[in-house]
Task: inverse folding
């Protein structure tokens, strides 16, 4: 069944549902008509019994004209029976009591209805009414009956019509369902053909969305939104690969140049050691770039794995200061940590130290003056700031400071791949926080992580 086209499956389901509805409706009509005919037959017998009772009260017998006035020959009958079961009067060809002993006893006290498969002279099923009456001051039972042939013929006619009209209606309904399913799926087929033609070589192509206001329009809108996200992700991936290739090409070219110079032109051990030293620096740069790219790739694949633990921010800042103190001293710069309240934060120590290390490295590389690390509590969060006293960021750079491979155009030029702040943002967001950058009013840059406590 699952291998059938969806149009045929919809038609089959529609046909089954219609068959159930038609069968149920037909059975309901047949049953209701039978019930109404049964009620009408009982009412007819009751009226006929009243007329015959009046005749018996007047004449004492059924009378010869009963057959023409109240009893149709071959269709109905009547008889008068005493409480012992003896037939006192009857219409031809009735000669014996039609009632059983139990029915006679009950009918002597109240009217009863009963069905007979046949009666003498009538080979057809019939229904009778037995009711108590007075005849010459004595209690007797009047029996009035009629055949059920008219009811049977009416029900048979309805059954035949339903058996003919039902299949015809089912075929027409199934054909209608097939056409409606085809019309509904035509838009789906149009969307499928367009989707098959969309590829990375055809950016901007979208699925046709029918203005129907139904599920198909919502499906088309949702799929187009998905294509937008995929196209944006593909563009980011292409940009990422292009920028990564560009950043890797520079240190690799320098490394190759240094090695060739060492092989061909190193005239003394000192020149050879200098070439090896510069090559080692480029290898370190490549290694750091590879680690940064790996971290960003992990973020794109579903997040950075964290090993959280409650930490004192003063310990974090002191650890980062200790790592970069030698560089600060070598550049004759001051590096200090300030965490007077020492708020605690639940974080991955290595990742947060990596983010703060990137900020300190940027401040030492591009800034000037004292580099300050401080931790403050603000509005239910913990902020870890790194500030310097340099020229600050260019204003046009601040909105995209944390984008990958982005570097300021002036004021903070220097080497680097432009991934430092992107790594800071990645680590902050992995902890459920954010990263911010701003220029200080007194000069210099202020970059900080805002982490949940």
Result:
């Amino acid at each position: 069944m699952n291998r059938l086209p969806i149009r045929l499956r919809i038609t089959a389901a529609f046909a089954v549902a219609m068959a159930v509805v038609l069968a149920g409706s037909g059975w309901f009509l047949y049953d209701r008509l039978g019930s109404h005919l049964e009620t009408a037959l009982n009412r007819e017998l009751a009226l006929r019994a009243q007329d015959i009772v009046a005749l018996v009260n007047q004449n004492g017998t059924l009378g010869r004209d009963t057959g023409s006035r109240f009893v149709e020959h071959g269709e109905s009958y009547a008889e008068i029976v005493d409480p012992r079961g003896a037939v006192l009067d009857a219409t031809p060809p009735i000669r014996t009591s039609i009632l059983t002993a139990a029915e006679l006893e009950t009918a002597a006290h109240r009217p009863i209805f009963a069905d007979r498969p046949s009666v003498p002279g009538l080979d057809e099923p019939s229904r009778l009414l037995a009711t108590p009456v007075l005849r010459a001051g004595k209690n007797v039972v009047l029996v009035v009956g009629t055949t059920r042939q008219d009811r049977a013929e009416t029900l048979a006619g309805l059954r035949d019509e339903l058996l003919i009209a039902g299949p015809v209606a089912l075929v027409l309904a199934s054909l209608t369902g097939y056409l409606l399913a085809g019309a509904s799926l035509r838009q789906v087929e149009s969307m499928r053909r367009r989707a098959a033609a969309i590829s990375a070589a055809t950016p901007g192509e979208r699925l046709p969305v029918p203005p129907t206001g139904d599920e198909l329009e919502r499906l088309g809108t949702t799929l187009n939104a998905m294509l937008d996200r995929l196209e944006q992700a593909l563009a980011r991936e292409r940009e990422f690969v292009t920028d990564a290739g560009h950043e890797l090409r520079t240190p690799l070219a320098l490394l190759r140049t240094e090695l060739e110079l060492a092989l061909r032109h190193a005239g003394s051990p000192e020149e050879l050691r200098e070439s090896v030293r510069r090559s080692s620096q480029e290898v370190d740069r490549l290694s750091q770039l590879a680690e940064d790219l790996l971290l960003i790739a992990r973020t794109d694949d579903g997040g950075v794995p964290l090993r959280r633990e409650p930490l004192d921010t003063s310990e974090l800042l002191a650890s980062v200061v200790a790592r970069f103190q030698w560089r600060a001293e070598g550049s004759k710069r001051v590096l200090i940590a300030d965490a007077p309240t020492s708020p605690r934060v639940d974080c991955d120590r290595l990742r947060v130290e990596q983010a703060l290390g990137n900020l300190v490295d940027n401040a030492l590389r591009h800034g000037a003056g004292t580099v300050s690390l401080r931790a403050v509590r603000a509005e239910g969060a913990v902020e870890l700031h790194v500030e310097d006293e340099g020229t600050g960021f260019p204003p046009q750079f601040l909105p995209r400071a944390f984008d990958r491979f982005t570097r300021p155009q002036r004021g903070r030029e220097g080497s680097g791949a432009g991934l430092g702040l992107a790594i800071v943002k990645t680590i902050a967001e992995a902890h459920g926080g954010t990263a911010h950058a701003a220029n200080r009013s007194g000069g210099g840059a202020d970059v900080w992580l805002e982490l949940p406590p």
In short: The chain has three domains: 7-152, 215-300, 308-451. Confidence is low (pLDDT under 50) at residues 410-414. Residues 215-300 form a domain with the Helix Hairpins fold (CATH 1.10.287.130). DSSP finds nine helices and twelve strands in the chain.
